[in-house]
C-alpha cells in the first residue's frame, strides 16, 4: 500500500504546488511577476536536493524522486504559463537569476572552506561534499532548464501548426517531449555525481510523462477558466487605505483623461502624445519596440448584418482579449474606428510575431462560437528594423495590415526577412 500512498501524496503535492504558484501568477498585475520568480528560486535548492537524495517507489516498482516529478515539472509548467501570458523575455529572467545564484553559491562554499569554524551548533560540521554535489547539480540543472525552456517554447509554437487551438494537447505534448530530453540529461549528472541506478532513468521518465499530463491539465484549466477575458485587469480588492486611495486616484485620472469610452483602452490622443516619445526612448536605449495594428476582419459588413450595438459589443470583446493576451508593460490604444494599436517596448520582431500570432489565435478561438465568428488581421513592424521614428514604423505596420487583409484576413504579416512574410499560412476558415 505504501506505493499507492506515495502516488496519492505526489498528486496532492502537484496540486498544492500549482495552486499556490498559479495564484501568485494571477496576482502579478497587482504585485508584480517577481512573486512568481522569487518562489521558484526559493524552492530551487529543495528541488535539487530531493532529486539527488530522496526517492520513492510507485505502483509497478517505479523508482522516482519528488524533486523531479513535482517541483521541476511544475516549474516548467509555470515557465510555459509565463511565456503564454507574458513573453519569452520574461521567461529568461528567473533562469538567468538562478544560474548566477548557483555560481555564486559554489564560489561562497569554496571560500567557506577556509574559515576557522567555532563548534557551537552541536559540533556538526558543514558537509562540503553535499554542498559540492548540490552546487554541481544545481548549475547543471539550470543549464538544462535554459535549454528546456527554449525547446518548450519552440515546441509549443510548432504544435500550434499541428493541433491548432487545442491548447491542452499542445501543452501536454510539448512538456512530454521536453521532459524526455531533460530526464536523459539530468540522469547523466546524477549517475556521475551520485551513482544512482539505471532504474531511476526509466522510472523517472514514466513518472515525468504522467506529470506532463497532470500539469498540462492544470495549465489548460487555468488558461481557460481563471484568466478569462475582461477580468484580468479588474480592480483588486484592496484593504489598505493608502493602496485604495492610490488605485482610486489613478482610475479617476484615467477616466478623465486619455481613455476610450467604449473599450476602456488608451485613446488616440494618448497615442499621439506617448507614441513618439516611446519610439525615441527605445532608439536612445538601443532596444527594439514593436508596433501591432489590429483590425477586426469584415467589421463594417458585421455592423451591416447585425447592427451598431452588436458591432460595438464584438469590438469590446476583441479589446478585452487584446488586453488579456498582451504583456502588462505593453500599451494598447484605440487608434481609430476599427483599429487597435499595441506598442510593445523591448520586444524584438521575431518575438512580436509569436505574440501577435498568439493574439490572433486567441481571438479566433474565443469568438469562434458566436453567431458570426470574429477574426482579426494584424500588421506588425519594429523599430529600428522598419525605421527609427514613429511615422516610419506605423507606415510599415499599416502596409502589412493591408497585405494581411488582401490575402483573406485572419493572419499576421510582419517583416518578410524576419519570418513574417508568409501571408498565406493562416487560412480564413473557422478554427477547429
Keywords:
432 residues; alpha+beta; Arp2/3 complex 21 kDa subunit ARPC3; Alpha-Beta Plaits; 2 domains; five-stranded mixed beta sheet; two-stranded antiparallel sheet; 65% helix; 8% strand; elongated; disordered C terminus
CATH topology of the largest domain: Arp2/3 complex 21 kDa subunit ARPC3
What helical percentage do the residues reach? 55-70%
Distance between the termini: 44 Å
Number of helices: 15
Tell me about the biggest sheet? 5 strands, mixed
SSE order, one letter for each helix or strand: HHHHEEHHHHHHHEHHEEHEHE
Number of strands: 7
From the 3D coordinates, which CATH architecture of the largest domain would you assign?
Orthogonal Bundle
Q: Which strand-content bin applies to the residues?
A: 5-15%
Give the class-level CATH name of the largest domain.
Mainly Alpha
Structural class: alpha+beta
Strand order of the largest sheet: 4-5-3-6-7
Principal-axes shape call: elongated
Total discrete domains = 2
Q: Kindly report the average pLDDT value.
A: 83
